[in-house]
Amino acid sequence: MKHKDYSYLYANWDDEVRRRKVTLSNPVFIKGLALAPIVVAGTSLANGILLCIAVFFLLTPTRIITSLITRRMSVPFKTFFYPFVSAIVFAVVYYYMYQYLGARVLLLGVYLPILVIDPLIVKNFEKTRKESVLYSFINGMRNTMGFAVACLLVCVIRELLAFGTVGGIQIMGYGLLPMAQYSFGGFLIVALVAGAWSAVVKDYRYRVEVEAMHDERHP
Amino acid sequence: MNDILKMLMEFFGYSLIAIGAQNAIFTRALGLSSGIRMLNDPRKNTLYFCGALTVFQLMTSIIVYYVMPLISAAGFAHLRRFVLPTVIVMACTVSYVIVIVLLSLIVSKKRFKELLQSVTSASITGTIVGTVLLTNYQGLTLLQSVGFGLGSSVGYLLAMLLITEGDRKIAHDKVPESLRGLPITLVYISVLALAIYGLTGHAIAL
Amino acid sequence: MTSLQRKKHDKSMLWAIFALVLCGSVLHGARVWLLCLIAVVTAKAVDVLVSMIRRCDYDSTDHSSEVAALIFTLMLPVNIPIYIIVVSVGLAIAVGKHMFGGKDVYPFNLAALTMCCAAVNWPGQVFSAVTPFAKVDLLSGYTTQATLSNASLIKDGGVPPYGVVDMLMGNYPGVMGADFVIVIVAIGIIMILRRKITWHIPVTFLVTCSAIAFAFPRVYGFSRLESVQFEMLNGSVFFVALFMLADPVTTPKTPKAKIVFGFITAVLGMVFRYVGSFDIGTCFALLLVNTMDGYIERMVGGKKIKVKQIEDAEEKTEDKKSSQRRIYTADKTETPKPHRERIRGASDAMDLISETEDNIDNVIYSTRTISIDEILKAEAEQKKKRGGKK
Hints:
The structure holds 3 protein chains of 3 kinds. Chain A has 8 helices and 2 strands. By secondary structure, chain A is mainly alpha-helical. Chain A has one domain (3-217). In chain A, strand 1 (165-166) and strand 2 form a beta hairpin. In chain A, helix 1 (3-11) packs across helix 8 (183-217) and helix 4 (45-69) runs antiparallel to helix 7 (133-163). The longest helix of chain A is centred in the C-terminal third of the chain and has 35 residues, at 183-217. Chain A is flat and about 60 Å long. Chain B contains 8 helices and no strands. The model of chain B has no long low-confidence stretch (mean pLDDT 88). By secondary structure, chain C is mostly helical. Chain C starts with a helix and ends with a helix. Chain C has helices at 3-28, 31-53, 64-74, 82-98, 110-121, 123-126, 150-155, 164-169, 181-193, 200-215, 224-233, 237-244, 255-275, 281-290, 293-301, 320-323, 345-359, 372-389, and strands at 128-130, 146-148, 306-311, 324-329. In chain C, helix 1 packs antiparallel against helix 2, helix 4 packs across helix 5 and helix 10 runs parallel beside helix 13.
């Protein structure tokens, strides 16, 4: 990357953080959202894919609908209106997921319905700024991508460590760390991946600053 | 007399299960995101938050318990599972309105302001929705639901007290920089969850 | 507890453990030495490796990891596979010690954490017991004389069929070093008399455990005193009391707090043993009580800690809300008398709710921006170091 780009990045760092939801401001690893489903239910790749499908059909539509309706709504109503909209969208999504994917959807128990009030889905009620539909769509998709990357990564690691498989395919002879299938193993693995993620983000930030400074000194 | 004793045993039995074996945070990770956010937000008081959570939990459990049969009676029994989250969100909203009205009548303006942040944050959380979903999926009776709900809130409070105390221990500069904040808090919670697992010894049913 | 005191404590612990390893090797053979060596090497290797990753100086005088690894190993049967020791010790030292900041600041007892990790991952192997003088393959640990441990037997409603003398001497199917009660008691008395450890926690713990075993016997058809005998001489109770609960880093500092700590650990430990799923309930209970030692110390010490919210001076330029943090002080702050102003109608309440909502802010946990000053400082220091070397 050219120094000029680093200078630009440094000058617009906050915008970049807001824009790069997958890497710089990952909703799971950096912001700590949607932890419950990943920690408890994210024990296998199959579960992870189901969670991602639910979030894909829930997050962006909820955000678009709420941005259309709540433009003139005062903040206290938003607190309850957003979860209400997300619950209604979820009812439709859950119904069709059940129709097409069958009973395996039910295996996730409360961790699929609980998404309706997860800050990942309804967090934007906290913002007083009004959103356009396009912005809602783009931001919703970025958040979905960020969640999907985090969720699938954790699920793959947990399945591999706990059972020695990935997506049901045997990779290792046995699970190296059977505790990965339990919730405390989930906490630990999410923490480790979040720590590594955070370290990479910080290193990148450091590099951006140093390169930008170098650019300022030697234009 | 025996019936009352039996009911009390049932009530406290479910409460104890919710506090220990089915702890909202350590076992089920319900309300974890809001709990960690509370640690980082000095404006929220843990005791106020958990007090409000308990009230909302009980009210929501009762409202949902009485509303769900109406949906079945209206001929939508096959849709119960799908509309349950919507019903819970509406019950939370009703509970919030009732609590706010009561608070505005009872407490002073200053105290109202103090309580409001915690009360609003506690009104719709993963703990409430998750617990009510669980009690409904497991088909618990009203007494069992309320007992489980109460235990869930108390368990959440105890867990938050332990995590807050842990927050003091891990808030120092010897912790690797990249782990400070969310990751180290999660590691701390994972060790506590491991300790709780020593009591239950089995994975939870989702 | 200063760093020097902790180091002295670790050294005396190593000598005490050496005595137990010696006893263990007499009853269970040379594999005890091999497993202890592997545990120590793993602990040391993880210490060095993490120090390299963290780019910080490795302290060769810190033996807390080795002590924890040895304590953990002595609680295992001699037929334990080697990889269990390597993975458990590696995980517990890396996560339980270094992630929390390393020596002197780790919040959980390392040996207990290692034991719990091994127990939940491989309960079948961890909770077996091997008959003394049994033939055990040095590398694989294969033996035909593995059986159920005494603690598991009691849990299942049985009674260990061994005499008191055998139980005191550790002469029954058991673990490598935690069953030699008489040796452990002797070591404990010597360490207390030589002031290497204080009596408060071990004595309170043992007395409370005995009292609970006496009051609530688990084995039916036997007297209360026999219940005390079964509970205390099995499940490594004396070993835990002396070696785990004496860890100076994770236990309270004042005598009163130590007594309360020992009492709570004993009560929870016995609850975990009676109700829980694992024989080593005390280790799980200890992890839980480790989180409470701050509360215990404040409760017993009589200090009232209040939470003050202040603004971080370093981050004043940033957003005020994100720069606020919790500071814990022991000062007493005077609270002004509340002025009771009532809420006037629904609109007033709605205004207040709106204000509150507007204040909610996104909390970002992990990413903290690095200031230019920090980079300049780091660069200047590096230059200084390079200049000094030249």
